[in-house]
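Reopening: structure tokens for the adenosine-5'-triphosphate complex, inputs below.
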Amino acid sequence: MKPHINTMIRGVLTVAEKDIRIYYNKPPVIIFGLIFPFFMFLAFYIGRDMDLSTLFPGFISMALFFTASSVGPLITPWEKQQGTYERLLSFPVNINTILLGDILAGATFGFMISIVVIVASVVLLGVVIEQIMVLILSLILGSMCFAALGVLLASPSSQAPSNIMMLSSLVRFPLIFISGIFIPIKELEGTGRILSQISPLTYLVDIFNAGFYGTSVFAISIDVLILSAFTLLFVYVASLFHKKNMLKGL
Amino acid sequence: MSAIQVENLTKTFGDFVAVNGISFEVAKGEFFGLLGPNGAGKTTAIRMLVGLLTSNDGSILIQGLDITKDVISAKMKLSTVPETRNVYTDLSARENIQLAGKFYGLSKNEIAEKSDELLNELGLSDRGDDPVINFSKGMRQRVSIACAVINEPDILILDEPTEGLDVQSRRLLINKMKQMNENGTTVILTTHNIEEANQLCERVCIINKGKIAAIDRPETLTSTFDKTQSIEISFNCSVTQDFFEPVSVYRIENYGDKWRLYTSSPDRTIKHLSKIAEYQGLEIISLRTLGPSLEEAFVSLTEVKK
Ligand SMILES: Nc1ncnc2c1ncn2[C@@H]1O[C@H](COP(=O)(O)OP(=O)(O)OP(=O)(O)O)[C@@H](O)[C@H]1O
Ligand SMILES: [Mg+2]
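Re-run output (same inputs, fresh job):
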């Protein structure tokens, strides 16, 4: 296979542009990506005797996690159902181009919404940011990682979009309870602690803590490394599954 | 160098052989038809031609280029209007066409110019900025073909593009295909409309059960595989099949207010029919003789043996 770097980059950007135009305002994305994490947070915050600042990095992580991973599961099942997928594949792209485009679209969504939330919190709530570069880095890493997870969740893409959305909630839900969002990681013990270490979200919460408060459980480099590794893993597995299921349900 | 060269192409799904060792060649600039009954394997063959499906055996060369080796280069030269032809309904007609242009790497100006031109040619200029969700089937299909031709491909492959369209949309589509072909594009057309294939294609390939049943010029196929002659007649009032009892023909078919009689001697049959009509006081409204047809050739080539 000859390298077609330019065609590939063009393909990724064009796919992402299409996704942004079509899928950002689809109801499942709005519900699972925006409304849902907000109410989740309220449900846990209200009535508990906790300082907002302790929970804030966790809240931003959760928002980013849900937002970035909400676009990916929708796209391929939706396109198969609509019959646009075969047309998309007939353009000079391959499956990886399409996946990277979808990831870029999901990541951009997560990144933008998080920035808005963070800026609003700084202005309205007086949240202070200790290390802005670390924060930006973690936003980028987190967006990419969970957008890739979102695309991975679309793997059984011959299913109806509603089934995929259900499945992806099923996978995403448990992660927010084991990742130190509602209970700080350092207060976790035993099984909780072990579970938290296999969740990619844990490392995002941790690096956000470093960004906002300059304190973290793991070293920043460990967080970066592990988040990158998860991202690559998600992309790789997504590519395998999507290739396998490419023509199913056309 | 031929536009497409297919050698011994085979595709199986489990135990089922969908395409069974087909070989053919399409010359540069040719208008080539792919006919066959439902489930014959046309779409499967096309999906392999455009690099969507990998074959179990055989080879495909697109302008000399092995499709499995460099599918991206092949796709730059070859556009498809797939059977599942939906365009993005959330976007407008123009946005759909522009999206295609971006995938092919056209410049902003080229895209703007070409999309105006295509919308105009395909009768969509006043609806160009409406979302496709409000479009009829025929209009959507016109958008679909516009997306496939914006890059002026060397090869254009269409899988049943005119299926279920009204006369106007069909004509617009056919004119576009013809025009592309006149400008040098190789066109491969799949259709269930035999008359359409007969009028457009220089050669047709008839596929049946995954195998090539025949491949030739439409006229040659017609004269080789169909020797029947028939007469089509209608009267000023309706008659029953009994009316034709005395006439010696080997098959009678009824279409609406018309009867078709298959005969070995049209002359004798017509003379006989006019006598009976006169005797019974019936007026003949229309009468025409029909020679062998591609449709009959197609039917005899793809007939299910009882
Ligand atoms: N992905 C698949 N898995 C299993 N069988 C398949 C698959 N795709 C096609 N087939 C089978 O292969 C055969 C050929 O199908 P194909 O779609 O190529 O026919 P076709 O000639 O295009 O028919 P039509 O005129 O109805 O479009 C059919 O029997 C179909 O059921
Ligand atoms: Mg078909």
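Residues 5-245 of chain A form one domain. Residues B 42-43, 83, 159 surround magnesium ion (ligand 2) (CB under 6 Å). Marking as resolved unless the reporter disagrees.
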